[in-house]
Amino acid sequence: MNSISLPPNSRLYGLSQIAIRNVVAAAQALELGRVDEADRHIIGLLALYPQHPEVLRLMAGAQNLRGQTQASIATLQRAIALRPDDALYLNTLGSAQIAAFDYDGAIANLRRAVELDPNLAVAWYNLGLVLMRSMRVDESAAALRRAVELKPEESTARVILGDMLRAEGRNDEAIAEYRRVLAQRPEAGMAWWGLADMKTMSLGGADIAQMQAALRRANASEADLVAMGFALAKAFDDEGRYAESLQAIAQANARARQRQRWDAAAHAASVDAVLNAFTPPRDGADAALGAEVIFIVSLPRSGSTLIEQVLASHSRVDGAGELSDLPLVLTEESQRRGQPFPQWVAAAHADDWQRLGKRYLERTARWRARRPRFTDKLPSNWLYIGAIRAMLPGARIVVGRRDPLEACFSCYRQRLANNEYTRTFADLAAYWRDFDRAVKRWRELHPANVYENSYERFVTDPEATIRDLLAFCDLPFEPACLDFHKTERDVHTPSAMQVREPLRRDTARAPRYGALLDPLRVELGLPLFAASTPKD
After folding, report:
1. Higher pLDDT, 509 or 435
2. 535 to each of 37, 416, 515, 530, how far by Cα in Å?
């Protein structure tokens, strides 16, 4: 059990040879996303070395993979106190902060990591990732290119570069980038998903065979296997093999669910707490504050990107995308008060909401540099409509609505990171009910400020829908809004390619699956397929 001779600055200093072997094995398991395997090594290490910084770092990595982000951050802070200038430790903390949606903290720690070790490719990759999620696209691209320069075989960074090419409408270059990754690493799941999610091409029989072979490769990580499962399902769908497609989706979601599970009861309780905190509405900021902002909220895959594209086609509106600023401002206030949201809402006064509204506008000032108004399209902001009305009474709030069966099924078959409620039909239905009752309550409380936009009406009668949308947003009609697919801008969502094409009327997918989706219909309280099918 004696430790081997290592310099004091080594991360493994003070560990025995057996412990070092367990550290290496745990790190390899975490790299592949095999958290149960990693835990078997970490448990023994913790028993002998509970305060060793490298053991704590591995423990934090396992906690992060399980979705225990706050515990992971706390563990990492203990490790960093022992090694304050270790770039790898700061990188791991930044990764955990990304998972916890603390993008400001992640950027600060990852920038510090690359300052300490400019050759740490993984830190450059994580920095690029969080900058992209913060809609700082140019900075993100520079960080990702640096990661690729340092580690040309780094497939995850190359895939995100492909995603950025796709966001810019450079589809052929994006496809070529994904294919280059797969030539080097056939089991790169996100490259397969990047190809599958292209609207200009379909994966054929040869691709299906290659994916099925790659799924059996021993060096495929859990994340690879999940992403390949979704890509395989999309390929089966393109070929009309709907039962096989649904089976592949179910397997991919089940694999993802093994690592993190969504708690439907806890989510429902949190929604109740927020609704109760803002009923009746709070006395808030000055009435005109926030008139520059148009919030777009919805379930994912419910037309929010189309709504934003229409508005961004207007000469007075900039489309900012999925901004994290609103929840981050609320998190800042929670930290300042030492209470989680919405527990502190009852103690907040009008001047507090005024301060928070101004803080949001300070954070988002760059989106008003070119045009006087902008969109904030983070779908999950539906939960915060009460807070938006208190902070920014002048803001418009557009709720994207879609048929619940189509919306839930589209979420189920789309690879949506950090949306764990999409893994089962039961969880999807529970989440939809939370969304539905929350929106109904907000509409009752704020009928003049919350507007519902029907995806189905958008598809069947786009001009009338667009005119009504512009009128609600107090924007004069402009013909460019009808030709929204011609507007050139970067779109970093799964609908990036869809908004560059004219609207199609045949968007309903559930009828193709027929009775195969009856379990989802049951969870949503809808008639079974046979009962809902028109008779001759």
Report:
1. 435
2. 54, 37, 15, 9
